[in-house]
């Protein structure tokens, strides 16, 4: 058995696991940033003003015949 080959394989496996953990952490951080950006954009949308001069029955039905 080649002891150095086994040690090298173990080191490679450990490095791969570390790289995957770092990649997942970066992905989660990016998702958190996107979520906060999306929340900020949603909060920036101005409220829709109501139309006080229109009757309440307008906009309740859709005419599907043409």
TrEMBL record:
It holds the Pfam family YjfB_motility. Residues 46-66 are annotated as: Disordered. InterPro entries: YjfB_motility (IPR025906). This is YjfB family protein. It comes from Duganella violaceipulchra.
């Amino acid at each position: 058995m080649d002891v150095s080959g086994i040690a090298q394989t173990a080191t490679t496996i450990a490095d791969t696991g570390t790289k995957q953990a770092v990649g997942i952490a970066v992905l989660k951080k990016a998702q958190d940033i996107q979520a906060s950006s999306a929340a900020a954009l949603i909060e920036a949308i101005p409220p829709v003003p109501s139309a006080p001069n229109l009757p309440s029955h307008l906009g309740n039905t859709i005419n599907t015949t043409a």
